[in-house]
From TrEMBL:
InterPro entries referenced in this protein's UniProt entry, alphabetically: DbpA/CsdA_RNA-bd_dom (IPR005580), DEAD/DEAH_box_helicase_dom (IPR011545), DEAD/DEAH_RhlB (IPR044742), DEAD_box_RNA_helicase (IPR050079), Helicase_ATP-bd (IPR014001), Helicase_C-like (IPR001650), Nucleotide-bd_a/b_plait_sf (IPR012677), P-loop_NTPase (IPR027417)
Name of the protein in its database record: ATP-dependent RNA helicase DbpA
Keywords carried by this UniProt record: ATP-binding, Helicase, Hydrolase, Nucleotide-binding
CDD domains: DEADc, RRM_EcDbpA_like, SF2_C_DEAD
GO cellular component, one term: cytosol
Amino acid sequence: MTDTAFDSLALKADLLSNLASLDYHQMTPIQGQSLPHILAGKDVIAQGKTGSGKTAAFGLGLLQALDVKRFRVQSLVLCPTRELADQVAKEIRRLARSIHNIKVLTLCGGTPFGPQIGSLEHGAHIVVGTPGRIVEHINKGRLKLEDVNCFVLDEADRMLEMGFQPDLETIVAALPAQRQNLLFSATFPAQINSMAKNIMDAPEVIKVASTHEQSSISQHFYEVDSHEAKLEAIRLLIMQHQPESCVIFCNMKKDTQEVAQELLNYGFSAAALNGDLEQRDRDQTLARFANKSINILVATDVAARGLDIDALDAVINYQLSHDPEVHVHRIGRTGRAGSKGIACSLVSLKDTQKVIALEDYLQQTITPESLPPVSVMNQALPVPNMVTLRIDGGKKQKVRPGDILGALTGKTGIDGSTVGKIQVFEFYAYVAVRRDVAKAALKKIQEGKIKGRSFKISRLR
């Protein structure tokens, strides 16, 4: 069994004595698995949620490598929000209490530039910040990163979700090629892998078992014949499973419109996605579904291609696909780490040949089940936690995700943790905020400015 005591690590004596004074004796699973690699100077990708002890893991790594006599920025830590950056900086300062004259500087949006410029002129050893503000300081020539030997991406999945990919690319381009890279993420969407390939060198991958289990898909089939009965079946299934995100697949465009409208009539949060949509409407629908301000997307297979959603709670097949391979691809979009994905398929008597083909392909017998009881309709309708605000300004107006985040979370603003996905298109942008702060968020941007300009903003229903 591996020794999980901090004093089993080859850490500097003053760091070890400070850990003991903080009552840090035993490592958490993520620390125990990642710290030996971090201290050996290797690149590391680790799965870790807030509270897993990841800050101490990378914090001890960068403090161990720090040369306090060299008054240069030697470590850069990126966080998605100001609140997390403040929290991380505070923890690094606690871990560094025994190191004299160490300077940890926080650079975040939503706070005045003046004091940050002054602090940068005085120099720092470690910079913790949000991508947008870091890019602004790099572009103005105020932040020099040529001496950075450790680059940390904390909550990388959330940074990508909030639209910071272009900012991350700008920052990476300003860093020296020879450096250690540490990436911490609660989930592993495909974007994380492609980003890791671009910036990391043979990384060690740490996945702590308690936070990551293999998901599996639970398949259910229901025999329903008429169009009206199918619409009722869909409502029953949604009420039973209460999915936060669900895609309903139809074989024809007209059905997507009809099913979505029927669900809207009953008070569900739904939208249709098909090839007849204008690009702007398609962008808006996908943005709202991806940021969790719409629960249900009713789509054709063609329209759902390239759908960047890899954590659906449920998939419902309004009709079976003509191709068993397409069926497997549809249902493969569901399931989250550590929980079962639900796949429900409605079949009619006319689908006999499709069912036989699917049984052959899956190598299992398909036995239709009974639909949920009508009593499930007595529950409250599933309501999205998020609301989308649309800003009539985008890339052409040089609006970036960091600008929007800063405008929302600045003085008297909302908490950064209540801001969800931010997507910026050519002429407009979408930002998700938690439903309970939507009114305050709308007011903050209406009364304030983004990039020194006023933009029209509306709340999407």
